[in-house]
Design goal:
It contains eleven helices and five strands. It is an alpha+beta fold. The longest helix is centred in the C-terminal third of the chain and has 31 residues.
Length: 262
Amino acid sequence: MGIISLVYAGGWEYSVRQYLKGFSDAIVPMSAAPEQRVEAILEWMRRGPPRVVADNPAALSARDPETTLNYRQLLAVCGTATNAFLNLSRSADLSVRRLLLLSPDRTAKHVVAEVLIGGRWVIADPAYRLLLRDAQGNLVTRRELRDPAVWTQATSVVPNYPREYTYESFAHVRIGRLPMRGLRFLLDKVDPNWDEALDWSLLLERESFFVLFTAAMLCLFFLVLRILLAWYADYLLKIPRFHLRQHVLRAGAAFFSAPEIK
């Protein structure tokens, strides 16, 4: 059953990746530099063809790439707009990750993306279809945006950009809703860079990849469990086991080999 689940999840993730690859190939010139690829995605989000308007946006799956790319309401919300941007960027061979801007009580007030361009993680705001730049036109990082002057320069191109969307506090993974209090504090003590070590946004925000990861972990768990139970039966309980592989090999040899004539 675990193997069947893994095969199903793998096929689902493969079909999603093929869909995203075809989508990004249609709007992103692959020979372009990384910055131009990002601008092409943002331009599609700004001026692309009309999207479907859902009667009940709450019923839409925010973790399904095909849904986030094709419904107007989802592309208007910072979280799902960033999901759409991240999925297209990965398909365009860009290194990207999600960035949550946090309020003093550690709740998310806005969601943006970081893109690796020229060896620097610069900020893109998919909800406003914007690569943030300073007054000289240089792309800026989250650290540079903690300077109020740079933040004002970068956001001045958007009328009425919310002033609370600042970068004093941020995270790549928000675990505040988990029941284990102090989990982030513990993880930060063990490894301060734990939330940047892996591409958590892909695992947490793409449903097909999460199912694939879960199926792989379950298969690994049951494989290890089977090995441990087999060792326990062989060496501690001394119980003879039914070895399926050996019986299949013997049956195959008997079926395909010519019988001896005495």
